[in-house]
């Protein structure tokens, strides 16, 4: 419309300024305006396509917070994981294996179906442990709760791992998820969790997502994490409103360079009211309230908590590792903390004093 008006003005002026230099100047101005408007329009198309290709809708304030209302709450512009600039650069990152130590996962889901790791060394359904890893027919991971090879058993009991994995995939479409199940719903024990972590590491995971916590220290888990400094453990700070400077939960409180603990914020950049916090006990905060997630059978629901916040940090860590595969876990942790979007109200709530900022963290790699 604006272009049309400019052309009209140009034509109107034509008689009067025919053969004048002004006509040429106005012509040049018109061309510049057309080029600028055209490039803005193109940028908007590429921006929208970028969001669509990542399954991001306007409900997903975590990826793109423009202050929109989600579930009746208006957000604060810019309080998101700042991933859009990273996507728009269309960086060709390497594929990364992420172990999701959790419930089972609905592997037929629209996102998960293309991102489930499969054990190439294992022949399916022949009753034999072909790769001799101790697990028979573990073609798509292992269920340490039931001690069998079915990684999805039930909608109700396997929803948590499903939505965590889906959110990691949304953040980084170049991940493969190793399903290592140790929970039935919210039930599971630390020794099974330790075995499940070990399985994911032995299967090649470089990042381990732990969206759960135990109050009791499990020495075997602590040792396993300590012994695997080449693997980053991304751990939830829990939903019991604990000050983790004073109290411990595990594995988030293990004091290791390869453990990053994650608290949650809402869409206005305020601490999630039930989430764990602490200037030393929590490293970073990420979106964790009114998050529209993808459940088994492709159902959708809203959730709150540090579990989902953790999935964004795992996704971010995998993106950074994919961009620079020789990064060590402590280096990933460092850029995630240093790249955080600082908020005054969060200064004493975690070590970074702010919210996960993927693009700022990426720029720190250079
Ligand atoms: Ca096997
Ligand atoms: Ca087999
Ligand atoms: Ca099973």
Give an overview of the whole structure.
The protein is of the alpha/beta class and 366 residues long. It is 34% helix and 14% strand. The protein has a seven-stranded parallel beta sheet with strand order 4-5-3-6-7-8-9, with helices on both faces. Helix 1 packs antiparallel against helix 2 and helix 4 packs parallel to helix 7. Bound molecules: calcium ion (3 copies). One calcium ion binds next to loops.
Structural features:
366 residues; alpha/beta; Rossmann fold; seven-stranded parallel beta sheet; two-stranded antiparallel sheet; 13 strands; 34% helix; globular; binds calcium ion
Number of separate strands: 13
Written as H for each helix and E for each strand, in order along the chain, the element string is: HHEEHEEHEHEHEEEEEHHEEH
Structural class: alpha/beta
Distance between the termini: 43 Å
What CATH calls the topology of the largest domain is Rossmann fold
Shape: globular
List the ions, cofactors and other small molecules found in this model: calcium ion
Helix content: 25-40%
Mean pLDDT: 91
Quickly name the level 1 CATH class of the largest domain.
Alpha Beta
Major sheet attributes:
7 strands, parallel
